Amino acid sequence: MYENLEVDHIFRIVEDDTDAINQISSLGFSPSEIREHTEQGTSSRFIFFEKNYLEFIYLRSREESQNNFVKFHQRVDNFRNKSGSPYGIAFRGKLSEIEKNDFELDQPKYNLYGKSFIIYMHGSYFTNPEMPAIFFLEVNNSKKEEFYPINRGLSCEKDMSLNQFADVTLISPILKEESFGNFEIQKGDEEKLLINGKFSF
Q1: CA 23, CA 200: separation in Å to the nearest integer?
Q2: pLDDT for position 111
Q3: Which of 11, 29, 57, 159 would bridge 88 by S-S if both were Cys, CB 3.0 to 4.6 A apart?
Q4: Can you give the pTM of this predicted structure?
């Protein structure tokens, strides 16, 4: 299943904006401007590459989050209590009608690339905080190439090894092995997320 999906971007939970900037700088990259997710209670900074990007997301307003379908504050709390994953994997591509049965639909109040869009949240988001947040982005009448940061006029980092996230692997001592498109969970002694087999996020 999920063979027609490919990773669009990956997020990691951080404490606040200062933490986001510090973590991005420690990786040797430059942080983007802040983006606020209206009514979701979160804000982010990014590292853009040609076809994918990394997101550092933090809780900006617990009250907004508590009134939002995604309820991101719960994921943040689980992460802080060391009982939840800090990661999220966003996909682009196409979900079959059968595959959509594994997801719950959300209509965010903010735009993506200037367009309204739909998020399909995998059921594990609400039932298993130890799983990364798995979600699918659907933008009406958009081809996958329109998702590429380089095609949206964004300033992209010049790192050939990360221009495209060809494969993303989460090594986990507790999760079962499974795959979603070009994202795979593998058994291992220590949790780490690898992009293209080398870059540790």
Answers
A1: 13
A2: 81
A3: 11
A4: 0.94
